[in-house]
Structure formats: structure tokens, C-alpha cells
Design a protein that fits this description.
5 strands; 382 residues; alpha+beta; single chain; 5-stranded mixed β-sheet
Length: 382
């Protein structure tokens, strides 16, 4: 929550307390029996409403005690219930339904017990009971509405993220399809042209004939076309991450996430597919922690075979709000993470921890058959 929003809420709460206090004081001023003690009780009960956000239960208790003391001492009209009504509404709004109802009941009991046993007092008490019931109901309705808005906002953010990931995945699939088409069509044709030109040049030189300049140009152009095509195919097929998990950790710290990195074992150059998968796993786990864990501490551990020989082990743990009794539904990110690990023959565990928070554990085999372009070690920062 931004500081500007907090300031606006504090001002609004102070205005609420001032308005309620002004109404109470105005009504009390027309009662000749009102004393300085009654004015003090009204002012204190109304002023407490300014602190209903940080301490709703304390405000409810204070407003109820002061309001009840006021009606017991002065026997005022129904408007004397305004501070208690405000406290009941705000308490119900944050989920304290029972306490809100109890506060209203205590005030009503004091109001009825101290008044003369007339029909007018009974009617006023019934009116106040309706007001208190409305305060509780509107507080609960406001609470449900705020929860609905938060849920809708979260769903919109998740949908936007899912759309972006789906678009990136479709773009990657399209690049791979184009790369396959180019490889299957152009590469074969250019290779044949280059081969035939090379054979013709070889035969001409073998017979002692002068090689035609056009044939040499064809051979050279064929070789250049093959080199350009290989470069284009590498670009189309490239979906490697730019950076290392250590760089991801530094970026997360810069963004305000409390995260630490521990690397154990002998760092080494990893197979290309393993290096890429490890980067994406750490990236997705840190993204999920930043989105869902709240103000949590995150620990990233990368082990080069000391826990399980021949395997790279990645662990990302947070002490956030995840609850084992209510595990989150796997989204696109966790599904993609699992697919990457499974494709490499590894295992993945992503679930809430028994003592709170969320844990991601990935084990990736370091097979020789997966080696490709030499990546940097995972723990390297630059």
C-alpha cells in the first residue's frame, strides 16, 4: 500500500470521527441535562473511530463502553448510538461478526435498562436494534465486496500473465516450425547445389581444364548461403535465457524481495538443456514468490552433485502464506516448469511446506548426451 493511500485513509477516518462527534455533540447540546462528563464521553467514543483500521476490536470495545456509560448517565435519544454503530460496522467489515453483534447487544441492554419502561423506549430500542443489524450486515457485505474485488484483480493479473506466456510459447513454436521448414527445404537444396558445383570444379581441375568463373562463383555463393542459413536457424531456434540464476537473485533483491543464494558442490559447465531449464525454474519460482508469498524470505539453493551424484539439484523455498491444507492450483508457470524437468528425465516437487510457505525442488540429471553449447556455471554472476 502506497504512502499516499495511507494518508488518504487516515484523513477519511479522522473526518468520520469528527462528523460523528459533531452530530453527537449537537444533539446533546439541546438536552438541558447534558453535563461535561457526557460531552467527554461522546467526544472520546467518537474520536476512537479514527483508529478503526489498525485496531477494530479495541475501537469496538472502547466505543461500546463509553457509549453505554453515556446512555446510562444521560438517558439520551437514539442518535447517541452513532459512535457504537460506526464501531460495529467497521468490526463486522473486517470479519469480527460475533464481537460486533455483542457490542451492539451490550449497548442496547444499557439503553433499555436505564430508560423508563414506556412504549416509546421500547420502540426506540427496536429502532436501534434494526440499526445495529444493518451495521453488521453492511459491514459483512462490504467485506465480501472487497474480497471479490481483490479476487477479480488477482484473476485479471493471472490471466494477463497467462496470455503473455501463451503468446511467447506460440511464438517459440512458430520459430521452431519455420526453422524446421527452412532446414528441410533450403538446406537440402543449397547443399546439393554446393556439392554439384564442388564436383564440377574438382573434375575440371583434374582434367587440367580452366575452371569457369561462374562455377567458382556458384561454389562460393553456395558456401556463403549455407553459413548464413545456419546463422538464421540458430537465431530461430534460440530460446536460451540471458543470464544466470545468480543474476536472477540480484534482480529479485533489487525489486525488494528478500532472497539469498547458496551454491554447493563443484561448479561446472552444464549441458545446454540443463542450464536453460535450471534458469527457467529459478526464474519461475522467484516470480511466484514475489507474486504470492507476500513479505517473505526466499532461499535459492543450487547443488552440483553433492546431494545426488550425477544430478543438479535446485531448491527454492519461501516462508510465505502458502497453506498445506489449501494447495494452489497449478498454473501455466508450474506446468511449464514440470514439463521442462520431465523432458530431461528429472523430477520436480512444487507444493506448500508443512510449516508454511512454498517449496520447489528440482533434480536434473547431468547426462553427457545433453551437452551442447557451453553455458556459464549457474552460480556465476557476470
Amino acid at each position: 500500500m502506497s504512502g499516499r493511500r495511507i494518508d488518504r485513509e487516515r484523513i477519511a477516518d479522522a473526518v468520520l470521527a469528527a462528523v460523528v462527534g459533531a452530530l453527537g455533540m449537537t444533539v446533546a447540546a439541546f438536552d438541558a441535562d447534558t453535563t461535561a462528563v457526557d460531552h467527554a464521553l461522546i467526544a472520546a467514543a467518537s474520536a476512537s473511530l479514527a483508529f478503526h483500521r489498525p485496531a477494530p476490536r479495541a475501537v469496538l470495545a472502547l466505543a461500546t463502553v463509553l457509549g453505554t456509560a453515556y446512555v446510562v448517565h444521560a438517558h439520551p435519544g437514539p442518535l447517541s448510538a452513532l459512535p457504537v454503530l460506526g464501531a460495529v460496522h467497521t468490526a463486522a467489515r473486517v470479519g469480527h461478526r460475533g464481537l460486533a453483534a455483542a457490542g451492539g447487544a451490550v449497548f442496547l441492554a444499557g439503553y433499555v435498562a436505564t430508560g423508563p419502561g414506556t412504549q416509546e423506549v421500547a420502540e426506540r430500542a427496536g429502532l436501534l436494534a434494526g440499526w445495529f443489524l444493518c451495521a453488521v450486515v453492511t459491514g459483512l457485505a462490504d467485506r465480501n465486496w472487497q474480497a471479490y474485488l481483490r479476487q477479480t484483480e488477482q484473476r485479471a493479473l493471472e490471466a494477463e500473465r497467462t496470455r503473455e506466456e501463451a503468446a511467447l510459447r506460440r511464438a517459440g513454436e512458430e520459430r521452431l516450425r519455420i526453422a524446421r521448414e527452412l532446414h528441410d527445404s533450403l538446406t537440402h537444396s543449397i547443399s546439393i547445389v554446393k556439392l554439384q558445383a564442388g564436383v564440377a570444379v574438382h573434375l575440371a581441375r583434374k582434367r587440367g581444364e580452366e575452371v569457369p568463373p561462374a562455377l567458382l562463383a556458384i561454389q562460393e555463393a553456395g558456401g556463403e548461403a549455407m553459413r548464413e542459413l545456419r546463422s538464421a536457424l540458430q537465431v530461430l531456434r534460440a530460446d536460451e535465457p540471458t543470464g544466470t540464476p545468480a543474476l536472477l537473485v540480484e534482480r529479485a533483491r533489487t525489486a525488494g524481495l528478500a532472497v539469498g543464494l547458496t551454491v554447493t558442490g563443484d561448479e561446472r559447465t552444464l549441458p545446454h538443456a540443463v542450464d536453460r531449464a535450471a534458469y527457467r525454474i529459478v526464474q519461475e519460482a522467484l516470480t511466484n514468490a514475489a507474486r504470492h508469498a507476500g513479505p517473505a524470505k526466499v532461499t535459492v539453493r543450487i547443488d552440483y552433485g553433492t546431494w545426488h551424484e550425477g544430478e543438479l539439484t535446485i531448491g527454492v523455498d519461501d516462508d510465505g502464506t502458502a497453506d498445506p491444507a489449501h494447495p494452489p492450483a497449478p498454473g501455466t508457470g508450474l506446468t511449464g516448469m514440470r514439463e521442462r524437468v520431465t523432458a530431461l528425465g528429472g523430477t520436480l516437487l512444487a507444493a506448500p511446506r508443512a510449516h508454511g510457505g512454498f517449496s520447489v525442488r528440482a533434480r536434473l540429471p547431468l547426462g553427457d548426451g545433453m551437452s551442447g553449447a557451453a553455458p556459464v556455471p549457474l552460480g556465476e554472476t557476470g
